[in-house]
Amino acid sequence: MADGGDEYKREESVTLLVIVSLAALSLLSLIAAFAYYCYITRKVSRRLHSLHLPKRSSSPPPPPARAPPRQQQQGKDSPSSNSASDGAGATAAAMSVVVAGERGVQVFGYRQLHAATGGFGRAHMVGQGSFGAVYRGVLPDGRKVAVKLMDRPGKQGEEEFEMEVELLSRLRSPYLLGLIGHCSEGGHRLLVYEFMANGGLQEHLYPNRGSCGGISKLDWDTRMRIALEAAKGLEYLHERVNPPVIHRDFKSSNILLDKDFHARVSDFGLAKLGSDRAGGHVSTRVLGTQGYVAPEYALTGHLTTKSDVYSYGVVLLELLTGRVPVDMKRPPGEGVLVNWALPMLTDREKVVRILDPALEGQYSLKDAVQVAAIAAMCVQPEADYRPLMADVVQSLVPLVKNRSNQKASNPNVQSSKPLD
Predict the structure, then answer these.
(1) Strands 263-265 and 302-303
(2) What angle do the packed helices 365-378 and 305-321 form, to 10 degrees?
(3) pTM here?
């Protein structure tokens, strides 16, 4: 009996040992599964986080208002309830931008850029922007670049420089101008961009820099493709990042064209991070170029993505009419482009009257009426009646595709050629 009892105890011990071992293995399996779950969750979270701009933190008080640059409206401060303040706070928020990897933005020395641009000589100057002159340059590796020598002194100029570096370093879209590098050495602030061989849209719409100057060589198809690509740039800023980025100075001179007349949105010195709440706004000083500023922003300082939509509508009117946004040399009632064109944009019989004479014979009436209707929606006085940029893109895509298909089947259709 003793042997039987011992045998029973041994079996019991073995059984207990097996049970404990199985329990331990199960526990280890659970721990391993939980660790793997945490790893995957963290990886996915990082990936999702990398695709969006984070929420803005609370901002310090804005710096004293500076005098607005040439061709810009006088600014004013507005109440900031449920909104972000201007100036340093906006820059601080932009500094928190996090996306997956940067585009390899380089840091240049002043001497290196001085040599690349021929000493910033007038022969190398290709433009004069709101924040400084732009020069053509060649890097030691042979790459052609555009170098902006920023001339805004003081704290505000520094914030504008940092805003543009942050945004263009981290936001990625084929419809935004690419930033190659920057220089912040001593009192010098320089930005180095991809070189856009055909410069700004404005100079092609108005070759002699006047409303009654030379005739534009941009044909209908090229204008519509530029309109679509510029719309895609704003769509990315408004709807592909969170909180949205509001350009705040969208205009024809800030749409740059490469050698094949493909468009990129540029100049982010005045950009602001928008509200991450549906229907929300940020309150800020009114800055922007006359003729492009949305009426509600001009009156209240309340800035939303719909403010950019209005500015886009003005550019679309420029493409349609070949007229500058404000020209008080025009006959009475025609000085402000939006006021003159808006009543005719939705009238099929009157649309043809406002189209640029240089476009004669290049478009179908149906396409012209559709584009005019899009422009009319974008420049509505009430912001709520304006479309999202995604809707604008969706409306333009079939028009551009249809023309491309017609062009492929009819090689005699005219098109713009790059400038020498």
Answers:
(1) unpaired
(2) 150
(3) 0.72
Q: Residue 38 forms beta bridges with which residues?
A: none
Question: How is residue 161 written in tokens?
Answer: 């420089």
Give the three-class secondary structure for 176.
strand
Binding residues for ATP, as ranges, are 155
φ/ψ of residue 128, rounded to 5: -130, 110
Q: Which of 77-81, 104-108, 159-163, 323-327 has the lowest mean pLDDT?
A: 77-81
Domains with residue ranges and CATH for the chain:
106-194 (3.30.200.20), 199-207+215-403 (1.10.510.10)
90 DSSP 8-state letter:
H
Cβ atoms within 10 Å, residue 274: 27
Which pLDDT tens digit goes with each residue over 347-386? Answer: 999 999 999 999 999 999 999 999 999 999 999 999 999 9
Q: What angle do CA 65, 251, 381 make, to 5 degrees?
A: 85
Cα–Cα nearest to 184, from 150, 156, 155, 143: 150
Burial grade of 202 (CB within 10 A; 0-12, 13-18, 19 or more): middle
CA contacts within 13 A on the Cβ side of 171: 35
Query: Which residue numbers belong to the known binding site?
Result: 155
123: CB partners within 8 A, 6+ apart: none
Determine which one of 86, 219, 249, 308 is catalytic: 249
Amino acid at 136: R
Lowest mean pLDDT among 62-71, 144-153, 276-285: 62-71
Q: Determine how β-strand 144-150 pairs with β-strand 245-246.
A: unpaired
Strand partners, 289: 72
Distance of alpha carbon 307 from alpha carbon 294, whole angstroms: 5
Mean pLDDT score, 90-111: 56
Whether 258 is a known active-site residue: answer: no
Predicted confidence band of residue 2 (pLDDT cuts 50, 70, 90): low
